[in-house]
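User: Can you help me understand a structure? I only have the sequence.
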Amino acid sequence: MPKLFSPILLLLSVLSLLTGCESKAQIQTHVVPKQALIDAGNQVTDKTPALPADHPPISTSRTSPPTASQEEGPFTMLAAIIPHNGTAWFYKLAASQADLQDLTAPFEKLVTTTQFKDDQPQLELPSTWTQSEPSGMRFATITIPHNNKSLELSIISLPMSEEWQNYALLNVNRWRGQVGLEPVTPDVLFSDDTENSAKTLKTSVEDALYVKLTGPKNPNASSMNAPFMNR
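Assistant: Let's start by predicting it. Here is the structure, written out as tokens:
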């Protein structure tokens, strides 16, 4: 009779066959970060060094210099017209009333000390004022450093094409509108007893008509019309 395998030997043989058919399992490793490290990585760290306790706060905002439209009023305009040989010479300086408080006398002196050579004004300027070369309609732009600002006094010339008083009235009323004032009539402008009247300044040639106008509107904040030529 055939020889019988013992149950134990049979079981070992089956297990050996099964083990040889299976591939070896690969071992994989995974690194799991700790939650504390994750939380720390998600936080924004301010690397700015701490200021001393008594140090004033540092502001990162930048303030732009005020524009003409942002200046505080009221506003003043100093303006004069010198008629000479059929030409009107316009002197004008406009800024806040506070800025022009100390410039009224120098402006008037500039007008009264003007000399003419070859029908063009020769200007006597204070030492800190500078005069630019003619440009376009301007005979000169005079730069005036004052109160940490740079103010501009303009001088232009235009031919006079009508009667002097009417010509002066039209231009003065134009200036009045630029500072927010109502126009005036000839009897007011050329009178001697009202605050709205013009003043006469003696020059080396004809007398100049001079006005000092103060109102709520900034004449430098918007474009200004040129002096009247035919109207």
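Now, to help you interpret it: The radius of gyration is 44 Å. The helical segments are 7-21, 35-41, 97-100, 104-112, 164-178, 186-189. Let me know which part you'd like to focus on.
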